[in-house]
Amino acid sequence: MVVPPPFTQKPLPIVADLLEAVVQKDGHVGDVIVVRSIDQTFGLDQEAVNAAKEWQFVPGTRMGEPAAVVVTIELSFILR
After folding, report:
1. 71 by DSSP, 3-state: which?
2. How confident is the model over 31-76, as pLDDT tens digits?
3. pTM for this structure?
4. Which 8-state DSSP code applies to residue 28?
5. Which of 15, 31, 40, 67 has its CA at 20 to 30 Å from residue 5's CA atom?
6. Domain boundaries of the chain, sorted by first residue
């Protein structure tokens, strides 16, 4: 495949979903909600939620003990 020089390529649009997720005491992601949607028609929102649920975090702590915490995640997609 021939790739044109960089100065002739058009920039690809980048879009981002904003999610809020609960990181459980064991570091796994629990409930996830879409705060800012980029797409409901083609499934990008659901793919963002699915991706976030696969992540593993170091659990948050409170007073030295593992605790569930809410995190905000911005997940970007490059549209081709």
Report:
1. strand
2. 999 999 987 777 889 999 999 999 999 999 999 999 999 999 998 8
3. 0.74
4. B
5. 15
6. 13-78
